[in-house]
């Protein structure tokens, strides 16, 4: 069912908002902007992955929020705070 929705183009909820897992340092607004960028930039890849990967049936947005966004903000935090990766992750 999910596969058919994605293939037919009916699954268009990539930017649907929900409860955001905030990457601390940038707050909820920063998390939302990063998530929107990732969703737009990698839309086709995400849709392809969603069709091919059974685990994504539970939701691509929770993965993007908790893993991709969290990892994307590490580098700017490292630069802003002049710290290494592990320390930046603690800040987040």
Automatic annotation (TrEMBL):
InterPro entries: RTC4, RTC4_C. Residues 1-92 form the Restriction of telomere capping protein 4 C-terminal domain. Pfam families: RTC4. The lineage of its organism: Eukaryota, Fungi, Dikarya, Ascomycota, Pezizomycotina. The keyword Nucleus applies. It comes from the Eukaryota. This is Restriction of telomere capping protein 4. It is found in: Cytoplasm; Nucleus. Keywords: Cytoplasm, Nucleus. May be involved in a process influencing telomere capping. Its main location: cytoplasm. Transmembrane segments: none annotated. It comes from Zalerion maritima.
């Amino acid at each position: 069912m999910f596969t058919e929705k994605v293939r037919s183009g009916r699954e268009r909820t990539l930017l649907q908002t929900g409860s955001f897992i905030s990457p601390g340092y940038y707050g909820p607004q920063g998390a939302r902007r990063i998530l929107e960028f990732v969703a737009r930039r990698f839309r086709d890849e995400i849709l392809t992955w969603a069709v091919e990967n059974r685990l994504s049936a539970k939701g691509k947005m929770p993965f993007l929020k908790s893993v991709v966004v969290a990892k994307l903000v590490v580098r700017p935090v490292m630069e802003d705070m002049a710290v290494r990766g592990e320390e930046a992750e603690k800040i987040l």
